[in-house]
Amino acid sequence: MKKYTSVFMALIVAAMSVLLTSCDTKAEKTKYNAHYFDYFDTVTTIMGYEETQEEFNKVCEEITTLLKEYHRLYTIYNRYEGLNNLVTINDLVDGKHTVVAVDKKIIDMLTFAKEMYSKTDGNVNVAMGSVLKIWHNYRNDGIDNPVNAELPPMEKLQEASKHTNIDDLIIDTENNTVFLADPMMSLDVGAIAKGYAVEQVAKHLEAKGITGYLLNVGGNVRSIGMADADKWKVGIENPDTDNTEKPYIEFLKIAGESVVTSGSYQRFYIVDGKSYHHIIDPQTLMPGEKYRSVSVLTNDSGLGDAMSTALFIMDYEEGKELVESLENVEAMWVLQDGTQLYSSSFEKYTFEYNK
Hints:
- By secondary structure, this protein is of the alpha+beta class.
- Helix content is 31%, strand content 25%.
């Protein structure tokens, strides 16, 4: 846990109005905050406007119950008694994967993941577990023992990349089963699962008429309605974390949208003085080097999560063309020299924040 929470993106969220008194028939609402450390190996922050602390706590309990369920289903590291999750899907029995009956929440997420694979021309591939596991192990070893930190051998990565064919992920939507046809393949849904889960929780609240909330799960930010009388104000962290005079490079106003950032300053380790982060290019099998960060603003946190990863890998012109082809998707790229580039309407959401 401590390996990740300290380097996950810290989007700091501020609401301009703390209290609202509306018509004399309405009670005063107060902004409440809650923090949790139990889901998706990161920090979850919930902000919301309610008339009482008790009402806020009740909504928080509903949110965290759902996040816990999605976390347990989508993890690739932990088993839970009586539950078939992604660990179960990745398991081998006598050297082969088996057909696994799973919760529909897994079926829906993996179906979405296949759609994202097609939409991003393979730059988001949940079937890359064999490659990502190698990087994960070398990164953790390098963090634990920085003096002896090493890069994975390219021949080892190339061999693993032979087992990343998304077509070997067989999803039976009628029977709610999943099967990995390649015994050397494994799933890693890190580029999608957190954002997808946040979006499902937000939709659940919206369907119940709950509004005036903002969820921040490890930097996957999703607003649910207004921040009471105004839009939510969200700051995007400066990827140059040494620049203490300018901790945020943009401020956005959102109401119902999501903001997700992928960056090279998150989850990295140092080898021979050079930083190697966790966003791996499927073509080079190495961390992408085009940008410091990419932020995506959209009305779907799952799409935002996938797109921020894909755009971080893609060339700018190719990525911008993809963004402009999608409805309700905007993006900001931060180049290695700090230059900020934008999709056509991203800046419509920005504002000057004065303390």
